[in-house]
Amino acid sequence: MSTLQGNNSASKECEGSSEANATTDNTDNATLQAINGLKTEFSSKLDGLLSAVNSVKSELTSCQKRISETEERISNAEDDVVSLQRRAESLEEQVAKLTSKLDSSENRSRISNLRLVNLPEAAEGKDICAFLESWLPDALRLAPPASPIAIERAHWLSGPKLANGPPRPLIMALNPQIDRSTGSDTKATSAGLKYIVQQENRPLSYLRTAWFLEQVDFVG
């Protein structure tokens, strides 16, 4: 009887121990599952974070490359601007020199021009140069020159012709071989309209008349 009770007691203790071991195993399994779940969740989140970091890193690399290219283009543009500024300054100097030469050339070409004031318009007829070549020596009472006066060109000064106003000045250019001072000390005495012959020398930088021939009378 005592032996049976002992066996029963031992059997109950074994069953209790087995149940305790089973409970411990279940707890350990649940813990491992929870840990594995956390690892999976952390791994998924870390993968997303790493992907975002890599994307930002790639964008930063691209931005850095674009910034470097932009800096290089800006540097090249600044060099071009400096070169263009120097070229513009050089061109301005050349323009100033050419303008000065042009003014000087124009002044030299105009210095041979003579302006005839108060000559009635249409008095010259069809050939103004031929008229002046024959009329000037008589009007200025000149001694017969070594060579006839030759008029290279002549024209009335541009501008409207006034019906009741004074005649427009007449611009003429003598042959370069003719002495333009001829007649500067002569004066006609015939009655008529007054006119003046003067040198057309008026540089662009300032307006002036170089010299005047004597005021004489026009014999109509």
TrEMBL record:
SUPFAM superfamilies cross-referenced by the UniProt entry: Tropomyosin
Domain of life: Eukaryota
Skewed-composition ranges (Low complexity): 20-29
Chain spans, region Disordered: 1-29
Keyword set, alphabetical order: Coiled coil
Regions of compositional bias (Polar residues) in chain numbering: 1-11
The keyword Coiled coil is annotated on this UniProt entry: yes
Coiled-coil region(s): 53-108
InterPro entries associated with the record: Transposase_22 (IPR004244)
Descriptive protein name: Coiled-coil domain containing protein 54
Annotated source species: Dissostichus eleginoides (Patagonian toothfish)
